[in-house]
Amino acid sequence: MGILRFLLAFSVLLHHLRFVYNLHLFNYMMVDAQVAVRSFFIISGFYMALILNEKYIGKNGTYKLFITNRFMRIFPIYWVILIFYFIYYFLNFDKSPQLFQIYFHNIFSFHTLVIILKNIFLFNFIIVPRDISIFNVIHIPIVLNFLLDVPAWSVGVELMFYLIAPFITRLKLKRTLLLVVIYLIMHIVLQPSFLNHFINALELYFFPFEFLYFLIGIVSYWIFTKVRNLKIKKEIITFISLALIMLTIIYNFIPLFTTNATNWGRIIYYSLIAAGIPFLFMGTSKNKISNFLGELSYPIYISQYLVLDVFKNYLNFGFLNQNVITFLEILAVVIFSYILYAFIMKPIDSYRARRLKRKSVRPSIITKKVPAYAVATD
After folding, report:
1. What is the rounded CA–CA span in Å between residue 122 and residue 302?
2. CA dihedral over 156, 158, 159, 161, signed as positive or negative
3. Which of 4, 113, 173, 251 is the most interior residue, by most CB within 10 Å?
4. How far apart are CA 27 and CA 236, in angstroms?
5. How many CB atoms lie within 10 A of CB 199?
6. 288 phi and psi, to 5 degrees?
7. C-alpha to C-alpha distance for 288 and 186, rounded to whole angstroms
8. For 27-62, b where at least 16 C-beta lie within 10 A, e where not — what string?
9. pLDDT of 68-126, one tens digit each?
10. Using the 8-state DSSP alphabet, how is residue 342 labeled?
C-alpha cells in the first residue's frame, strides 16, 4: 500500500510544480491533484477501519488513545512546517501573501485569532457566505481558505474524519453501504442548492463534501475482511497490485481520465482504487521498500510548498534546463521529507507504538492467512 500512497503524494507534487510553479519534468504528469487527494481519503478510510477493528480493541479500544495517537501522527511534522513557514514569511515580508500581511497588521483582531487557530488546529467546519468582508479589504471566505501551508487543507479534512471514525468504521458492511447510499442521495439533492449561497465546494474544502470517499474506503476494508480468507493465488494478488500501481503511473495517458469524460473517469478510478486496495494491501504490506515509501508520503505532501517556495525565492537556477531545475526541486522535497521522517516522525511513531498493549490485538490478524503486518499498520 505504501507505494500507492507515495505515488499519489508524488502526483500532487508534479501537479503543483506545473500549475503553481510553472515547472515540469519532461511534461510528465500522473494523477490529477484533486483525484490523488480523494484517493488518499479512500485509503485513509480503509486504514482507519482496519486499525479500529483489529488494533484499537480491548484495552487499546479507548477513544482517547486512538485520537491522541492520530494527532501525534499528524501535528508534529505539520507544526514544524508551520513554524518554518511563519519564519520564512516574516523574513520575506514584502514577498509574503497579501493575506499574511493584512493579518499581521491586524494581529489582535477576532478574524486574525480565528485564522491563527485555523492554522494551528486545521478545523474545517466553519461555513462562510460569499459576501463576507474582512478589514474592508478582502471579499472572499477568508476564514476558511487562508493557510500558511496550502496543502494542509486536506489534513484538516482527515482530522475531522478521525474525530468520528471510531463510531463509523465499526459499522458492519450492510450498514456502511446503506450510509453510502443515503449520503449519495443527500449529496446530489442538497449540494446544488447549497452552493447557490455559499462558495464552490472545491474552494470550500468542507468535510461533509469529502466524507463519501472515507466511506468508500471503509467499504473497501469490509471487502478485505472477506477476501483475505479466500485462497487466492499469490500471482493474482501480484497482478492486481501491479495493475493498480501502473494505472496510477500512466493515469494521464489514458483518454478516459483526461478528456471531457473526466467525471466518469474519476468515478472509475476511485472504484478501481477501492476494489484494488485489499489486494494491494495483501501484496505489499510486508515489503519494506513499499512501507518506507509510504512513510515518506505525508512529509512529501505537507512540506512541498515550503521547499518549492524557498527554491523560487532564494535559489536562482535560471541558467539550467527546466527539467534539471524541476528534478533538483523534487530531490530537495524528497530529502527534506526524509529528514522530517527520520528525526520527527519515526521517533514519535515508536512512542505511539509503545502506548499500545499488544496482548489485546485480535488473534485473527496474526494468523498465517493474515500476518502481523496488520498489527503494525497505523
Report:
1. 13
2. positive
3. 4
4. 33
5. 19
6. -65, -35
7. 42
8. eebbbbbebbbbbbbbbbbbbbbbbbbbbbeeebee
9. 999 999 999 999 999 999 999 988 888 888 778 887 888 888 778 888 888 999 876 55
10. I
